[in-house]
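Sat 14:20. Reprocessing the chain from the morning session after the first attempt stalled halfway. Input below, unchanged.
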Amino acid sequence: MINNKKIMVGLAFFTLALVGCSTDDDDNGERGNWKERSVFNGIPRSNAISFTIGNKGYMGTGYDGDDYLSDFWEYDIDGDFWAQKASFPGTPRSSASSFTLNSNGYLGVGYDGDNELSDFWEYKTSSNSWNQKADFGAGVRRGAVGFGINNTGYIGTGYDGDNDKKDFWKYNPTTDEWHELIGFGGHKRRDATTFIINDKVYLGTGVSNGLYVDDFWEFDPQTEIWTRKRDLTYEDDYYIRRSNAVGFSINGLGYIAAGYTGGAIGTIWEYIPEADTWEEITALEATVRQDPVSFSNGNRAFVLLGRTGSLYLDDNYEIFPFEEYDDED
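Finished this time. Tokens:
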């Protein structure tokens, strides 16, 4: 039964539907509010990389509909402003992977419009400089996930130009070496997403063989064991399956937002790890999108950029999961 609040949210999104909103955004959750933040200074884009170090978000590379990009930017979460940093010196690309370790960022693999790539780079925040590191251990890849935890970086899944993949590789920043991680039992996939809660990594979504995968996994870096959790279609009213989304965590809860399921979407789902359950909250109060990026420092999170169809975006929105919806923001 649809209550009055859901009707109000549906009406608030009617205008956005005219520019490509998906119809599933009419079923927003009972809570959650979004506030627009400083618009990105540079070129609108999709398929960029992002990572967060302290209260600074970093974003670069991507595709603007015409060109593959290599510029790199810093977003000040507290001050709500952007500053351009040293451009990425590697081949301009989209669909790369990234993570953070020891206050440094790492960026690698991806697609340059002709070929999948295997190179891998370190960004030092202290000197605003880039250093090339050992190529990704499994060769070329795009649409892979990347995450850093316990002083180790990981890249896995994705597409190598011939085949969707399910392998994972771990990176040691001290020795600059890659080693394969054995034990992931999930589906092959590309364009999946991850988030980290309490030193555990959660992986889900993505597409393989033209189908959206619905298996969902928890990775414990201490034991290097993957544990399957409830599928993303556990309940009939769950609609979490998608690709090209973003994942992040806030205060011990995980989130999967936006993405693609036959068209760009704006829905967002909240994960409660103790119960292994999901709840839908208010969808992104902006144009629906696929291939956005996100920043999160553990207490605050932002969803920005991406595209809907051929419209490339440069807007930036902060999510407040426990506030009531307010269409005046």
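The longest helix spans residues 4-12.
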